[in-house]
């Protein structure tokens, strides 16, 4: 029996959204503006409730929630409202001599019905996600797939788990992994892509995650009171509901999560030739040169790592590369900054978010218990399983084959890899999958230029961390394993708009040589036209070829 949303199946919900889109309602400029203004009003009126919901899910401080989610979401709406009138206008482009006289333009039009599946870790703003959910599928699930039992503890999340794989018949993906360790992340409401989808004139279905239940429940109850619920829907549910949604035909799907689930989403979309945007993640490297302001750099590294949801952010620095000779000084500077920000007992700090649930806590603890990092902790390491907190932890001289160097950490652990020369850092980074973000601290312009030229990443930031996302004129998205497509500011509008090419001509100025019967002389004139030579065009205008050939 299929999942139901207010008594309707997923297929019926999608059919209804398609009808609403076909009515043309969402294409109206005033409708788009009204929805965006409604979201701004909701943020203003419900800020306390939003912050409370985020705190219930992640124990995130009010300040961090406001700065990194609430304020950014409001800013995204206001920016879009300011620019939307310009964005929706057709863009005039040049024409060629072959079509003279003519006009050409690019007309943005909405795709139609959009499905947005995102992650739990930034449940309001939704720009970041868990890419490192280490899932060891337990015995029951494994036996359901006739694979036998798992040899390791089950840390399965209630994300798009085995149910999705079973119900969408993608068992081959699991078999190809070769082990029983999988990475799944949960779908969650993501406001910024929604803003872009609305601005572009689409109807939107949001699938929030049960992993952030308080925030999910807030949006499911409150958002429909502000926006047009017939065209913008929030559908809650677990794996079975997500699976059924993926079986439907959408006009575009955006998924925020990890590469393994992204492959499942892509396979589902491929059945209907549905385009997708994948905002994934990866191990974001941070290179630290000795030629820097160490005190300032340490503060920026600490706030970018631990001030971003306690490291549970896809653009948070995942590991550091520095020279052997500079590593000790860097560690000392990081310690000073950490103690200044979070005190001598960081587990008691109200400015550190907790780990989202016990499964993620166990995954992170498993990374610390890896024999290859035994004795490598130089700061932190304290854990409080009851409150789901892990103190900021720095590990020095971590080998590249350690478990935490092979998967995205997505938590408060920061390994430092040391090299003899920073030139070696590029080889280390490029030996891994392309990350969503890459960072460099240096005053050396040549090193900076080599970094930009040599390292491929979704985005880069020099001499700071995570702030690249605050610039609405820069696209946000990955490359390779870290994703495809991008959004942010106008890029969000473009992501959910089809760029329709429109060429207009009138009934004057016929060029006879385009019509049969073709002759060598006509071919010569056409070649001239294609090369931009105006003389053949003049010949065409006075119908010289016709007179010459009768």
UniProtKB/TrEMBL annotation:
GO cellular component annotations of the record: cytoplasm
Matching Pfam families, A to Z?
A: Aldedh (PF00171)
Q: Does the keyword Transcription regulation apply?
A: no
Active-site residue numbers? 279, 314
Name all Aldehyde dehydrogenase domain ranges. Answer: 10-124, 189-502
Kindly state which keywords UniProt assigns to this record, in alphabetical order: Oxidoreductase
GO MF annotations in UniProt: aldehyde dehydrogenase (NAD+) activity
* Superkingdom to which the source organism belongs: Eukaryota
Q: Name one GO biological process term.
A: aldehyde metabolic process
Entry annotated with the keyword Oxidoreductase: yes
Similarity section = Belongs to the aldehyde dehydrogenase family.
Q: What is this protein called?
A: Aldehyde dehydrogenase
Task: Tell me the organism's taxonomic lineage.
Answer: Eukaryota, Viridiplantae, Streptophyta, Embryophyta, Tracheophyta
């Amino acid at each position: 029996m299929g999942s139901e949303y207010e008594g309707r199946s997923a297929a019926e919900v999608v059919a209804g959204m398609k009808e609403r889109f076909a009515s043309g309602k969402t294409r109206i400029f005033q409708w788009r503006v009204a929805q965006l203004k409604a979201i701004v009003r909701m943020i203003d009126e419900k800020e306390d409730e939003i912050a409370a919901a985020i705190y219930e899910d992640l124990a995130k401080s009010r300040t961090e929630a406001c700065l990194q989610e609430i304020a950014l979401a409001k800013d995204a709406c206001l920016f879009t409202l300011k620019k939307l009138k310009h964005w929706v206008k057709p863009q005039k482009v040049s024409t060629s001599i072959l079509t003279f006289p003519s006009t050409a333009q690019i007309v943005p039009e909405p795709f139609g019905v959009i499905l947005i599946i995102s992650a739990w870790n930034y449940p309001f703003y939704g720009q970041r996600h868990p890419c490192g959910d280490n899932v060891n599928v337990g015995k029951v699930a494994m036996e359901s797939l006739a694979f036998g039992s798992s040899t390791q503890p089950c840390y399965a999340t209630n994300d798009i788990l085995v149910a999705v794989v079973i119900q969408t018949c993608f068992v081959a993906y699991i078999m190809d992994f070769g082990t029983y360790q999988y990475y799944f992340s949960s779908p969650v409401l993501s406001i910024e892509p929604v803003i872009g989808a609305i601005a572009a004139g689409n109807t939107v279905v949001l699938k929030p995650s049960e992993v952030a239940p308080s925030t999910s429940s807030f949006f499911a109850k409150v958002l429909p009171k502000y926006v047009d619920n017939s065209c913008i829907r929030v559908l809650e549910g677990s794996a079975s509901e997500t699976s059924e949604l993926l079986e439907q035909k959408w006009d575009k799907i955006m998924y925020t999560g990890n590469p393994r689930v992204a492959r499942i989403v892509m396979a589902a979309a491929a059945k209907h030739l549905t385009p997708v945007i994948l905002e994934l993640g990866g191990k974001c490297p941070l290179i630290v040169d000795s030629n820097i302001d160490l005190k300032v750099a340490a503060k920026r590294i600490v706030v970018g790592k631990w001030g971003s949801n306690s490291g549970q952010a896809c653009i948070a620095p995942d590991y550091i590369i520095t020279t052997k000779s500079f590593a000790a000084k860097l560690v000392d500077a990081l310690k000073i900054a950490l103690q200044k920000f979070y005190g001598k007992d960081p587990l008691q700090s109200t400015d550190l978010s907790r780990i989202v649930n016990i499964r993620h806590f166990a995954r992170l603890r498993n990374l610390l218990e890896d024999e290859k990092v035994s004795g490598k902790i130089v700061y932190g390491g304290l854990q409080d399983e009851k409150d789901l907190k892990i103190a900021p932890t720095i590990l020095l001289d971590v080998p590249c084959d350690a478990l935490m160097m092979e998967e995205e950490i997505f938590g408060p652990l920061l390994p430092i890899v040391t090299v003899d020369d920073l030139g070696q850092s590029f080889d280390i980074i490029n030996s891994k999958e392309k990350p969503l973000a890459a960072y460099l601290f240096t005053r050396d312009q040549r090193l900076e230029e080599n970094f930009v030229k040599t390292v491929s990443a979704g985005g880069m930031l020099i001499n700071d961390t995570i702030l690249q996302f605050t610039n609405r004129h820069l696209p946000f998205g990955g490359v390779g394993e870290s994703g495809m497509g991008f959004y942010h500011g106008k890029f969000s509008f473009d992501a959910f708009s089809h760029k329709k090419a429109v060429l207009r001509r009138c009934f004057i100025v016929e060029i006879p040589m385009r019509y049969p019967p073709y002759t060598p002389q006509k071919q010569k004139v056409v070649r001239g036209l294609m090369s931009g030579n105006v003389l053949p065009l003049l010949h065409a205008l006075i119908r010289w070829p016709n007179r010459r050939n009768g």
